[in-house]
Amino acid sequence: xxxxxxxxxxxxxPKQGGYQQDIDPANGKIVAEVPMSDGDDARLAISAAREAFxxxxxxxxxxxxxxxxRVGTLLKERxxxxxxxxxxxxxxxxxxARGDVQEGIDMAFYMAGEGRRSFGxxxxxxxxxxxxxxxRNPIGVAGIITPWNFPMAIPTWKIFPALVCGNTVVFxxxxxxxxxxxxxxxILEEAGxxxxxVNLVFGSGTExxxxxxxxxxxxxxxFTGSNATGRHVAATAGEHLKRVSLELGGKNAIIVMDDANxxxxxxxxxxxxxxxxxxxxxxxxxxxxxxxxxxQLKTILKSRIxxxxxxxxxxxxxxxxxxxxxQAMEKVHRYVQIxxxxxxxxxxxGGPAQDDQLSSGHFYxxxxxxxxxxxxxxxxxxxxxxxxxxxxxKDLDEAIRINNAVTYGLSSSIFTQDxxxxxxAIRDLATGIVYINAGTTGAEIxxxxxxxxxxxxxxxxxxxxxMDFFSEWKAVYVxxxxxxxxxxxxxx
Length: 492
Ligand code: NAD
Fold this sequence. Notes:
- By secondary structure, the chain is of the alpha/beta class.
- The protein has 2 domains: 5-248 and 456-476, 3-Layer(aba) Sandwich (Aldehyde Dehydrogenase, Chain A, domain 1); 252-436, 3-Layer(aba) Sandwich (Aldehyde Dehydrogenase, Chain A, domain 2), CATH 3.40.309.
- Helix content is 38%, strand content 20%.
- The protein has helices at residues 39-56, 61-77, 79-90, 94-114, 153-164, 178-190, 205-214, 227-239, 262-274, 294-306, 326-341, 396-404, 419-428, 463-470; strands spanning 5-7, 10-12, 19-23, 30-35, 121-124, 130-138, 141-145, 168-172, 198-200, 220-224, 243-247, 252-256, 284-290, 345-348, 367-370, 387-393, 411-415, 433-436, 471-479.
- The protein has a 7-stranded mixed β-sheet, sandwiched between helices. A 5-stranded parallel β-sheet has the order 9-8-7-10-11, with helices on both faces. The protein has a 3-stranded antiparallel β-sheet with strand order 5-6-19.
- Helix 9 links the parallel strand 12 and strand 13 (284-290).
- The chain is globular and about 80 Å long.
- The structure holds nicotinamide-adenine-dinucleotide.
- Residues 145-150, 172, 174-175, 204-206, 209-210, 213, 224-226, 229, 232-233, 247-250, 281, 382, 384, 410, 451, 455 line the site of nicotinamide-adenine-dinucleotide (NAD).
């Protein structure tokens, strides 16, 4: 199926007419053909969004919320179908794809409610017979740039709050997952989002993305992706004084103390490290383990990893799906070689799957390194694949110090039964998300999502934090005294 851009309420071909194949990473089959649009397509979408903004910003919030409610209902009705498309297009196993769609459903209903809340506040004026309030206001056109690893959840985390706040949208999804983006925008159209309010432009970051960053018609950029791209996005959009939110990479750790519930820790480690084949921003790629249980945990993990079943995500017994593409295979393997050359012990995995049945997909064996030290590159850099590095520590202080000694700050987790250790960890783990007795993944949509330090630029997504990014404050003073009253002067 050949996909089209959606601009000003019309499904249109890209001006220059180039297309690229959208491939199932598990077997190389073609899922769809994606337009490789150019800057002119992006500019058309921006002007459609600008024009629609004048009307959309005046639509009452509750009405905008009602449309999102319909979006949530449609997503819910089509959850299974969308999840199956997602597994084919992106590779994650079906159960996880269902979860990805569910995040979109949850966000639709949450943001539908924001249509009636969108709370501002009133506050006393310092002068008599004067009223003061602060209201939330739409900003304008939102440029939404997303990665491929959560093809439904991430776009919905951005588009739904943008819309409920009264902004219009130009959406540029990742080239690897266009079909899910297309399905989402079809649903928005069907739910009654007016023409021009959401526009979809497929294409590369360098052609379409760049225009969003620099065109004066775009007021804000919400970006999720790699650190390398994120720095460029911040610099370019910053040059044009656009508001920018960045959600970037992670190097997340699970700490396992010697009093941990081991069974629970093992299940959580496997889910956090090898779920989505390690291609989550919150994936656990470092395991910081108390020396008292280090060898025991290594032995258990080795045997559990050996029993993980690789395969197409639509197959019932598959635990781990493919990586997204050949470049990802090469990158992961390069890091495995780096780990070995740094002196880490390769416990299991360490290469592409050899099974003939998997040969037409991008399957990499779940990999465990032991004997890793905090400074090694495999313990510092984001690999974005099924590679876990075990680091041995003496006590909680050392564990926390190592947890924090990376440039990223997205998610961390600790397994302990000790309430004192728990609260020390909550206070001292320097990440935007902290889990106690749960792995590093599993964010819920009504809490703030995002990371400290190199994981972003301080914004948070989801929950009320999203409202803060997609709206701006207006301070309003109503003087009903009938005379000139000067703040700071007539107050004595
Ligand atoms: P990426 O940076 O390669 O691409 C992300 C998006 O940016 C894509 O749509 C891409 O086309 C676009 N892009 C590329 N160059 C651009 C440019 N010059 N101008 C504008 N846009 C441009 O990232 P990816 O490989 O798609 O995703 C994986 C990364 O995303 C990982 O680092 C992962 O940790 C991160 N991620 C972070 C979060 C989070 O919430 N913190 C969530 C998911 C993924």
